[in-house]
Amino acid sequence: MFKGIGASPGIAIGKILLKKESKIEIVKKHIEDSIKEIHGLHYARVKSKDEILKLYEHTLETIGEKEAQIFEAHSMIVEDMEIFNQIESKIKDEKINAEWALKEITDQFIAIFDDMDDEYMKERASDIKDVTARITRNLLEIQEIDLSNLKEPVIIVAEDLTPSDTASMDKKNVLGFVTAIGGKTAHSAIMARSLEIPAVVGAGDILSKVNNNDYMVFDGDEGIIYLNPTQDIIDRYVGKLEEHKNFKYALQKLIGKETITVDGKKLELAANIGTVDDLDGVLRNDAQGIGLFRTEFLYMDRTSLPSEEEQFEVYKKVAQTMKGKPVVIRTLDIGGDKDLTYMDLPKEMNPFLGYRAIRLCLDQLDVFKTQLRALLRASSYGNIKIMFPMISCMEELREAKSVLGSVKSDLRNENIGFDENIEVGMMIEVPAAAIISDILAKEVDFFSIGTNDLIQYTTAVDRGNQKLSYLYNQFHPAVLRCIQLIIDNGHKEGIWVGMCGEVAGDPEMIPILAGMGLDEFSMSPISILKARYILKNIDTKKIRDLLDEMLSMPTAKEVQAYINKKIPFIL
Ligand code: PEP
Ligand code: MG
């Protein structure tokens, strides 16, 4: 048995097709006819451009706009004259072969992008690598295994898969894939989830252990891989595969249904989104609203602030697409781990405790007011609610509301319409806010608990620190008590309480949260139907009876064990 990282759920059982990178040896050669070499380069470039265009169209049709954007980026690279003029000059000036010149120049660009701190820019480096490999193959007329045209169902095993590989996969015949490298957030993993192909990544030295036509069974949830397994194991996984299919079918049947518990409590399952491209998934998974729109993505990967008009169009589109369902839009939450190069944010010792989110907005009022104007204008087109992030004291909340009030009166003076009854809420991500949530609740229309940050601030554990991940735990009794306190305080003041941190979509936590009285659960769209399934099978009254005992347990481990023992509907 091998263990990798479960990257896309599902079971795969079948024969292996090894996709070994044909190691392309590129050697420097002296050439006489540079014109012929440049023609060769052009031919390979045009061929690559055609291939990329086909991949773009195929991806757009079969997966979605967001995934297809990768190929838009690739096509910009094949069309980038800055790169190709440099390659041509190198061929001419140094009288060298095209593939060598291509490698030398693109290596320079790759090194520049790889060196940048910005994740988006780093991704540009892998895009250039992918495009360079394609042009090189076309230059040297090297044939690769064509994943878009497979003769029989197979499990693909490879060192790594590029977005081009994943997007072109013949979904009918790819049972799943396993890669030696990569993590959950690699492009190939993201594509696999969108395509609903089971996948395991980061499987280490798997390539040295497998041969073409070996038999494999793997579990894309757990990351477990069996090579040439016994009949017993095959039978067990055939059973699991069957269960998986039935479960998927059962989930599809929940589309269009209410989220209502056994004891008749109606709950709201909303989606977290970062861009308008995520709306496809929101509709497909039947979200009852948007519980968190992380607007900072609108400000990222660009060179200047988005204008009021640009933001207005985006917020309006989201509001209209959701057709009157609630859309909670969070104001800019930049800083911490999210940087904006063009804003020249200060380098800080503790960025998560620093100049971020509402703190930054209240300091840079022009940025804040532009966003609030766009949000208010868009509120005429749907059911928008405004939410402030990282509020740590009443002063911040009052100040943010007062800025909102002044933007409202500007709009009134200009005769620009907006929803006069727009709800205004705040995230609870800071323990100080949780502790005074009884007071804060008097001045907002709703709370949304941001557990991603709340856990890190409550337990003093950096949410991104792998070495400390064992301490970052939603089952910590302090975290659970904090959540219960916030919900109770919100309800005492008659406001609704939601949650938009990752915990809201955690199958083990969903029943507990429902028992605690959470009103709205906001999560990644893909988790929604599973959450509905869980909620439809639990009785919140029975869970409520367990809370006192659960909340008095001393350790996270005991809490988790208690939940698993006492609550039958955990998947
Ligand atoms: C959170 O902190 O739980 C949250 C939803 O915000 P983000 O993950 O964007 O910090
Ligand atoms: Mg947060």
3D structure, described in words:
It contains 22 helices and 16 strands. It is an alpha/beta fold and 571 residues long. The model has no long low-confidence stretch (mean pLDDT 92). It has three domains: 24-140, Enzyme I, Chain A, domain 2, CATH 1.10.274.10; 154-251, Glucose Oxidase, domain 1 (3-Layer(bba) Sandwich), CATH 3.50.30.10; 254-566, Phosphoenolpyruvate-binding domains (TIM Barrel), CATH 3.20.20. The chain has an eight-stranded mixed sheet. The chain starts with a strand and ends in a 5-residue tail after the last helix. It has helices at 34-62, 65-78, 81-94, 98-114, 119-140, 163-168, 187-195, 231-252, 279-284, 296-299, 308-321, 357-363, 365-378, 394-413, 431-435, 437-440, 451-459, 477-492, 510-516, 528-536, 540-551, 556-566, and strands spanning 2-3, 5-8, 11-19, 154-158, 174-179, 199-201, 215-219, 224-227, 268-273, 290-294, 326-330, 383-388, 423-428, 446-449, 496-499, 520-523. Strand 5 (174-179), helix 7 (187-195) and strand 6 (199-201) form a beta-alpha-beta unit. The longest helix is centred in the first third of the chain and has 29 residues, at 34-62. It binds phosphoenolpyruvate (PEP) and magnesium ion (MG). Phosphoenolpyruvate is lined by residues 292, 294, 333, 429, 450-453, 500-501. Magnesium ion (MG) binds next to helix 17.
